[in-house]
Amino acid sequence: MMGMENGTRVKWFKVQRQKEEVSLDAGRGVRDTGVGERKSRNDVTVKNCLIKFKVFRFNKKNSAETKQRSGCPRTFSEERWIVRQAHINPKTSAVKLTLKCKSRFRKSVNPETVRNVLKKHKYYGRVLRRKPYISIANRKAKLAFAKMYVKQSTEFWKNIIFVDGSKYNIFGSDGNQKVWHTPNTVLHIKNLRATVKYGGANQLVWDCMASSGVGNLDFINVQ
């Protein structure tokens, strides 16, 4: 039985090799003589799509031979599952996705592979933006307030005054500031940010705005 199976397999490989050689010769003949693919297909017993593919490869690479695939063969095929998990929970890490994949599919995956899969589908790791927290109830209330006034007329907005206040530091800034420095120069004067006692002084200002123009700037003194 084993001898018959081996003989059948060898015969099958010979037939496939002959078909490839015939299709290769047909593709070259179509390229050199300008004969149409359909007429060439009638001359040899090969599918029309195979001849078109051979002609396309010969025109592109000047060779119709089937080359061996380069690189390591692909062993991980659960890309859609990883992308779906990242879409459901964007805050999950590549290491956690690796552990979930190992427990679900019984496959050992490197975290770098998970990162490459996400980058391939336009998912990039970035630092979270800081925004004030707004609860679901407040979101609904703000949306209802906006919908209530979105269709008001121009005459209505002429009677509305918008007010706002702001704080300005007299010495320094409350935000973070970065500096470029070489090693062992972190304590140089030009690489330091000077501070004063009690954080420095600041000034509160208040202003208003209406359809007629901008109001006067008022300074608020807080003891």
From TrEMBL:
GO biological process, one term: DNA integration
Domain of life: Eukaryota
GO MF term list: DNA binding
Biological classification of the source: Eukaryota, Metazoa, Ecdysozoa, Arthropoda, Chelicerata
Cross-referenced InterPro entries: RNaseH_sf, Transposase_Tc1-like
Pfam families attached to this UniProt entry: HTH_Tnp_Tc3_2
Name of this protein: Transposase Tc1-like domain-containing protein
Boundaries of every Transposase Tc1-like domain copy: 80-150
Annotated Gene3D superfamilies: Ribonuclease H-like superfamily/Ribonuclease H (3.30.420.10)
